[in-house]
């Protein structure tokens, strides 16, 4: 991956997530500061959880869940979390 194709990868990850059941919206951001300058013609960087910032909304039977994934430095782990849960009234 390079800075030149990071946006394409973000959109592809969003599109792939949108085919999952109950996913209403997805936003994927890749931290470009983690991408290094290419050293040679064939050099690239592999995508890691440390580079990702993901937000998504799930809608299941009228309940909406706002969730995400960010790298938790203190845990050295790409942590998934729930931000908010709402129940829509009929």
Q: Summarize the main sheet.
A: 4 strands, antiparallel
Q: Quick one: CATH class?
A: Alpha Beta
The computed structural class is mainly beta
Strand order of the largest sheet: 1-2-3-4
Shape: elongated
Terminal CA distance: 46 Å
Q: How many domains, as an integer? A: 1
Predict the CATH topology: Pantoate--beta-alanine Ligase, Chain: A,domain 2
Strand content: 35-45%
Mean of the pLDDT scores? 91
The total count of strands amounts to 4
Keywords:
4-stranded antiparallel beta sheet, 1 helix, Pantoate--beta-alanine Ligase, Chain: A,domain 2, 90 residues, elongated, mainly beta
Give a verbal description of the structure.
Helices cover 14% and strands 42% of the residues. The chain is mostly beta strands and 90 residues long. It has a single domain, classed as 2-Layer Sandwich (Pantoate--beta-alanine Ligase, Chain: A,domain 2). A 4-stranded antiparallel sheet has the order 1-2-3-4. The longest helix has 13 residues, at 6-18. The chain is elongated and about 55 Å long. It starts with 5 loop residues before the first helix and ends with a strand. The model has no long low-confidence stretch (mean pLDDT 91).
């Amino acid at each position: 991956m390079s800075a030149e194709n990071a946006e394409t990868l973000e959109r592809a990850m969003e599109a792939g997530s949108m085919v999952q059941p109950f996913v209403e919206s997805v936003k994927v951001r890749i931290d470009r500061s983690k991408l290094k300058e290419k050293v040679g013609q064939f050099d690239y960087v592999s995508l890691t959880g440390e580079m990702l910032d993901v937000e998504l909304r799930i809608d299941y039977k009228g309940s909406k869940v706002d969730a995400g994934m960010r790298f938790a430095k203190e845990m050295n782990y790409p942590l998934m979390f729930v931000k908010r849960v709402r129940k829509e009234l009929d």
